[in-house]
């Protein structure tokens, strides 16, 4: 059974009720309940991610692995591979989901996605430089290269898109992002081709994968993810106000530049840490906030936390699916997303007025 | 109703004023050395031909545009030196163009006007609730509360934006061409609403296109041309055929508005069909 289907339903169900509710006073209560449900769904997905995999392990063995670990092979797989992998999936999913939602809100561009706008590719180039050229292997060190790459990419893409007379439009921003992302990927590939050892180590990472990272990586990247999540969630209200336009936002007392810069910092932290952990992932940050907005409406105070909760559910589900469809091997989550992402993306682009946000 | 101070009186009280303003976009200077005071509790209307700098002046007064030289003062302080939220509790602006977030309801949009009164730790209070429902009642959009803003007519939508600006609860409210894109009945509806808000004690400042509407609603008129203030004062004292000719390059006759006794501009016809009385 595909967990993606099992898990997607309760979230949509709770949201559907919220959309139908016309009573303004009742709506926050329903949305808050929905958040609790989303946490529960995430917990269930996490359990599935720990229990299911290329190696068949019974549910009893999974429980035992936590309560009474006996050092057996199964227990080791669960405790040292699947649990860190699952926690990494939660961290990466939450950061990418929130980063996508923040970017879409800040740029008022429904096509904004850390992967599509080249930010994850910039971060990946930073990591490739750190690992491939400088031989740095401590995640807490090379994450700074990821931040550098992400920050540079956001600045470059934004400048590229807003140059010229017509200014920045959703389409220009996306084109600039895709082009810049390709350049970054090409340079990263070139560096890796020069060094076959690094290439072997990094080629799975480069397609986006939750596997192959240790608990240590997670521990070292978690503070950056947490900082990005807290900062991002705190920006909901100024972003809500800025959504009415720069003039209206400023008239209502939003410090426009400060809000932009802080959002940029949050996105850099989130994308840099996520890419350092799992490689450049596309579409997660694009599709999740889209779907969330369709359910909870345009209020960022709900869009941001819902995106941060729904994205890891989908990322973990895709990861588990990747483990199950190619048994005893596995398909990296980046490839699974590359298969399911574009059709959803095309559907969204066709169904909605893309320019409107 | 608040009485407008005598025109040109140097003692007139003014919380919002600009001194020696040079206003420019990039390299293009729109206005130089402007001095302007908005009389307290007035309904001030800024008027002038296209590209005369009227919207630019309003944007400067609302701190949307930083003057190249000179300064805008609010309650005696330089406006850009005050914290932005602090200004937003005293002075509101309805910009010419705003963005309606996809799928937002009327009530949610109006509620966003409460931003300057909220803190990270003190988010939604009874005062916010009261301000929002009062703003919606004043603009007659209470019934539309649960409707999606995108689906409303232009006139309704403008009332919703006004409600949002009202929920901000500022004693001074600036409006940048609030009647553009509206048909005549909705224009009058919005202006009547502004007049009500003015009578309730607010200082209103609006940029308008229509000289007759300006004459009818303004208690204080600022007439601009080519980045300069040409005339200032009560419409009946200021608006003359000479001024209209000088400012708008239009020959006209001025009669009394039969409804309000304010000046009514009748442009000269090229060919008279019937002899005038």
Automatic annotation (TrEMBL), chain B:
GO molecular function: ATP binding; ATP hydrolysis activity
Chain ranges of the ABC transporter domain: 16-251
Alphabetical list of PROSITE patterns matching this protein: ABC_TRANSPORTER_1, ABC_TRANSPORTER_2
Main location: membrane
Any GO BP annotation: iron ion transport
Gene3D superfamilies for the chain: P-loop containing nucleotide triphosphate hydrolases (3.40.50.300)
Record's GO cellular component terms: plasma membrane
CDD domains: ABC_Iron-Siderophores_B12_Hemin
Localisation per UniProt entry: Cell membrane
Membrane topology type: Peripheral membrane protein
Keyword field: ATP-binding, Cell membrane, Ion transport, Iron, Iron transport, Membrane, Nucleotide-binding, Transport
InterPro entries noted in UniProt: AAA+_ATPase, ABC_transporter-like_ATP-bd, ABC_transporter-like_CS, P-loop_NTPase, Siderophore_ABC-ATPase
SUPFAM superfamilies: P-loop containing nucleoside triphosphate hydrolases
Protein's UniProt name: ABC transporter ATP-binding protein
Lineage: Bacteria, Bacillati, Actinomycetota, Actinomycetes, Streptosporangiales
């Amino acid at each position: 059974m595909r967990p993606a289907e099992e898990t997607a339903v309760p979230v949509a169900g709770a949201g559907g009720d919220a959309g139908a509710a016309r009573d303004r006073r009742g709506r926050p209560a329903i949305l808050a309940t929905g958040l609790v449900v989303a946490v529960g769904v995430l917990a269930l997905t996490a359990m599935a991610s720990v229990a299911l995999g290329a190696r068949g392990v019974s549910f009893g063995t999974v429980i035992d692995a936590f309560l009474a670990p006996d050092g057996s092979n199964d227990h080791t797989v669960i405790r040292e591979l699947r649990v860190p992998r699952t926690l990494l999936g939660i961290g990466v999913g939450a950061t990418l989901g929130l980063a996508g939602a923040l970017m879409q809100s800040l740029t008022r561009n429904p096509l904004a996605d850390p992967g599509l706008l080249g930010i994850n590719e910039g971060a990946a180039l930073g990591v490739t430089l750190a690992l491939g050229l400088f031989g740095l292997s401590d995640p807490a060190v090379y994450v700074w290269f990821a931040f550098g790459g992400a920050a540079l990419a956001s600045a470059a893409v934004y400048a590229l898109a807003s140059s010229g007379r017509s200014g920045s439009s959703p389409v220009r921003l996306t084109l600039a992002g895709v082009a810049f992302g390709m350049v970054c990927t090409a340079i990263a590939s070139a560096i890796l081709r020069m060094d076959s050892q690094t290439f072997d180590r990094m080629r799975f990472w480069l397609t986006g994968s939750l596997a192959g990272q240790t608990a240590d990586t997670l521990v070292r990247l978690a503070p950056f993810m947490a900082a990005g999540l807290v900062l991002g969630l705190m920006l909901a209200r100024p972003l809500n106000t800025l959504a009415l336009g720069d003039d209206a936002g400023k008239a209502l007392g939003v410090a426009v530049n400060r809000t932009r810069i802080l959002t940029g910092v949050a996105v850099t932290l989130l994308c840099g840490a996520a890419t350092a952990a799992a490689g450049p992932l596309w579409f997660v940050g694009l599709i999740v906030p889209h779907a969330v907005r369709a359910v909870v409406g345009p209020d960022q105070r709900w869009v941001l936390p819902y995106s941060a909760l729904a994205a890891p559910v989908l990322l973990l589900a895709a990861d588990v699916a990747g483990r199950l469809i190619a048994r005893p091997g596995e398909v990296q989550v980046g490839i699974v997303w590359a298969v399911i992402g574009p059709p959803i993306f095309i559907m969204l682009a066709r169904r909605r007025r893309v320019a409107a946000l | 109703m608040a009485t407008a101070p005598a025109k040109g009186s140097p003692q007139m009280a003014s919380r919002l004023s600009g001194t020696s303003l040079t206003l420019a976009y990039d390299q293009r200077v729109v206005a130089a050395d402007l001095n302007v005071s908005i009389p307290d509790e007035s309904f001030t209307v800024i008027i002038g031909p296209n590209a005369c700098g009227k919207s630019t002046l309003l944007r400067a007064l609302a701190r949307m545009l930083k003057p190249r030289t000179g300064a805008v003062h609010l309650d005696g302080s330089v406006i850009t030196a005050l914290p932005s939220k602090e200004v937003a509790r005293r002075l509101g602006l309805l910009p010419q163009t705003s963005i309606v977030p996809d799928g937002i309801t009327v009530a949610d949009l109006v509620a966003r006007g409460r931003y300057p009164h909220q803190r990270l730790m003190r988010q939604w209070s009874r005062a916010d609730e009261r301000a929002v429902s009062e703003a919606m009642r004043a603009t007659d959009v209470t019934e539309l509360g649960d409707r999606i803003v995108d689906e409303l007519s232009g006139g309704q939508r403008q009332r919703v934006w006004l409600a949002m600006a009202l929920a901000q609860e500022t004693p001074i409210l600036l409006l940048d061409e609030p009647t553009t894109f509206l048909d005549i009945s909705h224009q009058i509806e919005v202006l009547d609403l502004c007049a009500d808000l003015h009578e309730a004690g607010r200082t209103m400042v609006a940029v308008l296109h229509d000289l007759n509407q300006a004459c009818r609603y303004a208690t204080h008129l600022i007439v601009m041309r080519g980045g300069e203030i040409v005339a200032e004062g009560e419409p009946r004292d200021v608006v003359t055929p000479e001024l209209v000719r000088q400012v708008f390059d239009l020959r006209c006759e001025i009669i009394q508005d039969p409804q309000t006794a304010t000046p009514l501009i009748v442009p000269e016809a090229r060919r008279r069909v019937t002899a005038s009385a």
